């Protein structure tokens, strides 16, 4: 009931909502409405109550709350349930646990803080409390394992679109799965799966967004930033999570139906940060790459498998994610 109340308040804006209207809409008694509003107040929601007018939401706490997150889900949203934690070791680990025990796809795990977040190639991911978005989606795609990496690109598209719509910034995608703003990383995405040769038991797509982060470790300040650092405006994390859940669901269902990224190539290419720019291709770890393992070319976009098309010596070569790293000529992008 709390998610319905919060949705009604949000849609009403600064207008009051009468207790009678709430009772009629929710199909409950005034006492039930009063009880739930009292619980929302205890959690930190500032709700004004005026006789003969009703209630209105004045302010909300800057922390993630499951019912509020679910209040943003569209009626037909692919995401049906959200688990929200104040602190957890890893949302990906929790999502995998849920998948192992039969949780249906479309369940989203969200945490205000992670103590053991991980990025690509096992790297740690700083997940301090109260400022970021750390979430993982349980998926059961009817795909062969070879097509699962495409889920990461779909997630990147959904995250990027959601950030642009909710935050009003010109975020872009750095192939294959980083979201950047002003040339620095604001989001990383990691997809893991449990599969057999030709069958996927489940996949989990984990997403970390630097929303309102103020400070970063010195070693990554040259390549990492947050949305807040770039535009000076606090991100409504609940609104961004809700928008992502709705957008990703629509993208995911289309991808599973088609079996490839053909329907998304145009949108992805438009958002590709280094499209038509020179890039370096590292056939090993960037940090200690041998010069003989580095090639240069011009990024032209992706194909329907999600490979990056790089023009080298007059022809395009399909560069596959997971086998190489791509950087700009003069830096990260």
Description:
The structure is a single chain. This protein is of the alpha+beta class and 333 residues long. 30% of the residues lie in helices and 26% in strands. A seven-stranded mixed β-sheet has the order 3-4-5-9-8-7-6, sandwiched between helices. A five-stranded antiparallel β-sheet has the order 13-12-11-10-14. Helix 6 packs antiparallel against helix 8 (237-258). The chain starts with a helix and ends in a 5-residue tail after the last strand.
Strand numbers in spatial order across the main sheet: 3-4-5-9-8-7-6
Summarize model confidence as the mean pLDDT: 91
Please describe the biggest sheet, giving its number of strands, its sense, and whether it closes into a barrel: 7 strands, mixed
The beta-strand count equals: 14
Treating each run of at least 4 consecutive H or I residues as one helix, how many helices?
A: 9
Unreliable residue stretches: none
Give me the secondary-structure category: alpha+beta
Q: H/E element string?
A: HHHEEHEHEEHEEEEHHHEEEEE
Q: How helix-rich are the residues, as a percent range?
A: 25-40%
Q: For the CA atoms, what is the radius of gyration?
A: 22 Å
> Globular, elongated, flat, extended or rod-shaped: what is the shape?
elongated
Strand content: 25-35%
Distance between the termini: 46 Å
């Amino acid at each position: 009931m709390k998610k319905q109340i919060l949705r009604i308040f949000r849609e009403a804006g600064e207008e009051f909502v009468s207790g009678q209207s709430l009772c009629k809409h929710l199909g409950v008694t005034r006492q039930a409405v009063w009880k739930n509003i009292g619980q929302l107040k205890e959690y930190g929601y500032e709700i004004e109550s005026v006789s003969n007018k009703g209630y209105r939401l004045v302010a909300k706490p800057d922390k993630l709350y499951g019912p509020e997150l679910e209040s943003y889900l569209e009626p037909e949203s692919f995401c049906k349930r959200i688990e929200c934690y104040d602190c957890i070791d890893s949302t990906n680990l929790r999502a995998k646990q849920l998948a192992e025990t039969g949780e249906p796809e479309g369940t989203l795990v969200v945490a205000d803080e992670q103590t053991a977040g991980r990025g690509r190639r096992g790297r740690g991911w700083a997940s301090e409390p109260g400022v970021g978005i750390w979430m993982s989606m349980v998926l059961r795609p009817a795909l062969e394992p070879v097509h699962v990496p495409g889920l990461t690109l779909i997630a990147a598209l959904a995250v990027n679109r959601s950030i642009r719509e909710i935050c009003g910034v010109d975020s872009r995608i750095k192939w294959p799965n980083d979201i950047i703003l002003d040339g620095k990383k604001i989001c990383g995405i990691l997809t893991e799966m449990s599969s057999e040769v030709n069958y996927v038991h489940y996949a989990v797509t984990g997403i970390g967004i630097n929303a309102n982060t103020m400070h970063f470790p010195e070693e990554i300040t040259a390549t990492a930033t947050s949305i807040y650092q770039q535009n000076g405006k606090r991100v409504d994390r609940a609104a961004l999570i809700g928008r992502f859940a709705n957008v990703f669901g629509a993208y995911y269902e289309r991808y599973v139906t088609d079996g490839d990224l053909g329907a998304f190539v145009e949108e992805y290419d438009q958002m590709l940060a280094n499209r038509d720019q020179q890039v370096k291709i590292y056939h090993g770890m960037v940090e200690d790459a041998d010069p003989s393992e580095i090639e240069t070319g011009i990024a032209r976009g992706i194909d329907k498998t999600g490979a990056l098309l790089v023009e080298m010596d007059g022809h395009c070569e399909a560069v596959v994610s997971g086998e190489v790293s791509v950087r700009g000529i003069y830096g990260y992008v």
